[in-house]
Amino acid sequence: MNKKDNFRIAIIGCGRISGHHLRSIQSVMGLQIVAVCDLIEQKAKAYAAEFNIKYFTNYRNMLETMPEIDIAVIATASGMHFEHAMEVMEVYKKSVIIEKPTFMRPEQLSIAYKKANELGLNIFPVFQNRYNKAVQRVKKALQNDELGDIRIMNVRLRWCRPQRYYDMSDWRGTYSHDGGALTNQGIHHVDLLRYLGGEVERVNAVMRTLGAKIEVEDAVVSTFTYDNGAIGSLEVTTAARPDDFEASLSIVGSKGLAQLGGIAVNKLEVFTPNPEDCISHSDDFSDLPDRGRVYGRGHNEMYSDISAFLFKDQSYPVNQNDCANTISLLHSFYRSDEVGSWVNVTVSSQSERLGRPNDQISNLYRLTKK
User: Fold this and answer.
1) Among candidates 57, 114, 127, which has minimal Cα distance to 86?
2) HEC profile for 203-261?
3) Which class in CATH covers the domain with range 7-128?
4) Domain map of the chain by residue range?
5) Those residues with Cβ within 8 angstroms of residue 17's Cβ, 6 or more apart along the chain or in another chain
6) Predicted confidence band of residue 263 (pLDDT cuts 50, 70, 90)
7) Positive or negative: CA dihedral 131, 133, 135, 136
């Protein structure tokens, strides 16, 4: 990108998380939100009125009539991220910010980054929970050897997603466009297993569908090992009732214990190196509007990092390999369930189910070709 005073951003997809993006963009100097787009006009129109920007129901019309747009946020159905991002880059030559889980399959990531590099564009994956104060304090503790060597990692996410949640949209609860509890709700915790603990070596997972009539899992229990010898466990479910209860991550180290909790790993609940840090490095998200209590404040920091990349040539903290390793780890859990045994975490251990093509659903979210 050429250096300039202001970078204009548009959002494609006006779901629940889009308002969070809009408010975050608005808070960062040098970034300007200029338009939103959604197939459902009332969704786009509502955000346009709130933020005094233009709205569209066709992203092609938006990008053609507003060539000044520099970056597009891809916040559409997960299974459409790759298709939409590729078109925005190839046809309209815009960089992209992509909501979780970035892409559904590892090879899609490789293709997208290759195209971005060819065109001189940028891809910014979203992993906002890395920015939580509690997460950053534990990250620093690990870097400074305050906790010693990691011995055990544990993730436990117990949320509620009833049938009406999956019935909201055709893409929800499908392997092609959504993934289950692990892909949609647990992806940030899967990412934190790597961000905090290093690379996972092997995974053994069992998945079940227990609380809703969907094709994907709403419950998964797994054990795993790190290449440094540490071991771990993971429990992720959206079959908890009647509400969201917990989203925690704990680390047993040779020198101490750290436990992150709250609704979105936003609270430092136990920190033996300095228990007083539990107060100063916890954050209450209850003041945030709509689903902000789940999304947290990390998007603000993420956009600050994007601004630093654009204006100060600072590296964006999530690069291609980093993102690829998280998606490969995600696939390994599914692959283990499919083969009924341990699997090594490699790019080749891809799930047969997660991200498989489904044009019937894709066509619901595609624009008619000109």
Assistant:
1) 114
2) EEEEEECCCCCCCCCCEEEEEEEECCCCEEEEEEECECCCCCCEEEEEEEECCCEEEEE
3) alpha beta
4) 7-128, 133-291+318-344
5) 75, 99, 291, 295
6) confident
7) positive
335, 351 contact by CB (below 8 A): yes
Task: Spell out the CATH class of 133-291+318-344.
Answer: alpha beta
Residue with tokens 């079959």: 239
**How far apart (Å, rounded) are the C-alpha atoms in residues 164 and 169?**
10
Contacts of 125 (CB under 8 A, 6+ apart): 98, 100, 102, 318, 323
Q: Which residues are 96's β-sheet partners?
A: 72, 123
Query: 207-262: per-residue pLDDT in tens?
Result: 999 999 999 999 999 999 999 999 999 999 999 999 989 899 999 999 999 999 99
First-to-last alpha carbon distance for the chain, in angstroms, is 29
Q: Exposure of 15 by Cβ count < 10 A (0-12 exposed, 13-18 middle, 19+ buried)?
A: middle
